[in-house]
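Hypothesis: this fold can be encoded by more than one sequence.
Test: take the structure tokens below, design a sequence, compare later.
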């Protein structure tokens, strides 16, 4: 299957953290439509919040996130005040003081905010929303710049999950990606947060980095397992220098090709499973007792803009520049440029840049793609019935599915499909079959593996 794998692995397809994916959101989307969606939410149904903090103190050359490098705190302090003002705008647009079961601060580097700024944000959230009993409060941090004062504040504010970007411990790779972060630095941050009461820790690793080898990545995995994080995400490096200009510092010739990337991913996965982690979806691993592993085992695993999640909420409100939100009606994305985002808030407008209202067919296809990404299988006929379509609604995709079956990527039943275990790395390829926006799109994506 090696030649077939190579052919599919080179294809560029989305990561499917939403459907349609963000490049297909409309730029002429009116904030009044989003206001209507918010006003129509069920005030008793828990929602989730995502707050985006785009600032970083150091530039990592592999990063593809929307971030701003800052050496001064003044822009960060101003951003905190604008973030609080957006919280008020959103809360005013909702039908009630909504219950929140999941909250996530991402970036960028949320811990670029100082402790008092973080406390002010959380105080306003507590004032304008109702954090449910047992709500998951998660924050991303950078071990290179995480201070003892911030560790103490994170614990005092009740955060119960923290995520670190480890990526790779090999010194040559760290130099190539401009992220010098020895294991001792990560261990200090991990132990500090646990001592402060943050009981759940996530690590992110990346394969396919410049000069990376299977042996180096396996060593990194073993060092991470020794620190006993609750979850480990193993992402493939997405080399998109046409979008992320900092990635131009990484020469194409230093990057492993598809077969080597796949070998790295599988070697790391085997080491994680041997270390007691449950394999979840295409790129996550968790301790058996973690909520992510429990959701996967019970068929309740979901996918959102942070990747795999156990969060069942139908509504996720994005707060901050470039953040993306979701309601049962559709998706919205905020203005990405922090100045324009702040001016919209100052004018009393929800800072919406783009959006997409879901059609009935979008909702069906979103469900199918999510189940493929989460379960590696889907009952197509049942999905059609659930969304009001005929049981053979996927006729246009039949020829492509038959080709994937002949190539050994999946097995078929009368009503559905399942990926073959050896083709799990190509899950995104199978999911893309149901993406009606992909074929005609003039959008560049990262390779499948």
């Amino acid at each position: 299957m090696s030649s077939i794998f190579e052919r599919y692995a080179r294809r560029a397809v989305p990561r499917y953290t939403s459907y349609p994916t963000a490049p297909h959101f409309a730029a002429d989307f009116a904030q009044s439509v989003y206001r209507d969606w918010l006003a129509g939410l069920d005030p008793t149904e828990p929602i989730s919040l995502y707050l985006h903090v785009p600032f970083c103190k150091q530039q990592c050359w592999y990063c593809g996130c929307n971030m701003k490098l800052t050496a001064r705190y003044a822009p960060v302090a101003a951003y905190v005040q604008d973030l609080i003002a957006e919280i008020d705008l959103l809360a005013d647009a909702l039908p009630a003081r909504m219950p929140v079961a999941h909250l996530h601060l991402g970036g960028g580097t949320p811990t670029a905010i100082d402790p008092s700024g973080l406390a002010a944000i959380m105080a306003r959230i507590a004032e304008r929303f109702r954090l449910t009993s047992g709500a998951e409060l998660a924050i991303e941090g950078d071990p290179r710049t995480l201070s003892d004062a911030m560790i103490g504040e994170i614990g005092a504010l009740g955060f119960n999950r923290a995520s670190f970007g480890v990526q790779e411990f090999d010194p040559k790779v760290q130099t190539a990606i401009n992220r010098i972060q020895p294991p001792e630095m990560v261990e200090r941050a991990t132990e500090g947060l646990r001592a402060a009461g943050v009981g759940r820790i996530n690590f992110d690793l990346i394969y396919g980095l410049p000069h990376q080898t299977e042996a180096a990545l396996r060593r990194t995995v073993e060092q991470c397992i020794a620190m006993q994080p609750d979850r480990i995400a193993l992402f493939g490096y997405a080399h998109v220098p046409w979008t992320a200009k900092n990635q131009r510092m990484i020469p194409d010739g230093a990057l492993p090709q598809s077969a080597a990337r796949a070998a790295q991913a599988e070697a790391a996965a085997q080491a994680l499973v041997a270390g007691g982690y449950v394999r979840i979806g295409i790129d996550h691993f968790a301790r058996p007792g973690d909520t992510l592993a429990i959701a996967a085992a019970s068929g309740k695993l979901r996918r959102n803009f942070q990747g795999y999640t156990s969060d069942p909420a139908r509504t996720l409100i994005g707060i901050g520049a470039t953040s993306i939100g979701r309601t049962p009606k559709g998706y919205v994305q905020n203005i990405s440029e922090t100045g324009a985002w702040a001016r919209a808030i100052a004018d009393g407008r929800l800072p919406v840049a783009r959006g997409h209202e879901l059609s009935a067919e979008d909702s069906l296809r979103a469900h199918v793609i999510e189940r493929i990404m989460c379960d590696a299988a889907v009952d197509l006929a049942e999905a059609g019935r659930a969304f009001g379509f005929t049981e053979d609604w996927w006729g246009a995709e039949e020829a492509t599915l038959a080709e994937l079956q002949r190539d050994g990527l999946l097995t078929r039943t009368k009503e559905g499909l399942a990926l073959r275990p050896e083709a799990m790395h190509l899950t995104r390829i199978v999911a893309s079959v149901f993406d009606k926006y992909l074929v005609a799109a003039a959008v560049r994506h990262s390779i499948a593996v």
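The CA atoms of residues 267 and 372 lie 23 Å apart. The chain has a mean pLDDT of 94.
Hypothesis status: open.
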